[in-house]
Amino acid sequence: MYKTLILLFFPLILFSQTKTYKVIGVKDGDTVELLMNGKPQVVRLSNIDCPEKKQPFGNNAKQFVSDLCFGKMVKISTDNKKDRNKRLIAEIILSNGKNINKELVKNGLAWHFKRYSKDNSYDILEKQAQKLKLGLWKDKNPIAPWDWRKSRKSTSPKSTNTVSSKNF
């Protein structure tokens, strides 16, 4: 009986002892800056990918995250892995227990980033948002941010150092 109670409450006890960090910046929908141990740490939200700032709903995602957590104390769930840009990869948890990463997907402001996620709960949230046509799912053909970034790379003009004779 006692073992069962301990097993039931262990996650709650563990979570309640987790450190909290202040959100000191929101760079975009899926990147925030936390004050961790007196130093700024950029955090990339795990399991999701938000539209880029110049994409439809990119600024909406950033504003959504800012409204939820800027200046607030949050907890993180992380395995302490960093991405290639040295950003800590984590889920951000508000004091009321809401998971910002999941809230973004639930509200149609992020894709489940299946390439880097094995958490099926995000897939379920994404399908619900699609069905309800929330956020970016209002568009007939929303472009995933990884496809948008790829298309921007292939269409960006090559820089040349030629000088026109008209300048002389």
UniProtKB/TrEMBL annotation:
Q: Where is the TNase-like domain?
A: 17-139
Query: Is-annotated flag, keyword Chloroplast?
Result: no
- Asked if the Swiss-Prot or TrEMBL record annotates the protein with the keyword Hydrolase, the reply is yes
Region of interest (Disordered), ranges: 147-168
- By what name is this protein known? Thermonuclease family protein
Q: Which Pfam families match?
A: SNase
Keyword list, A-Z: Endonuclease, Hydrolase, Nuclease
Kindly give the InterPro entries that the UniProt entry links to this protein. Answer: SNase_OB-fold_sf (IPR035437), Staphylococal_nuclease_OB-fold (IPR016071), Thermonucl_AS (IPR002071)
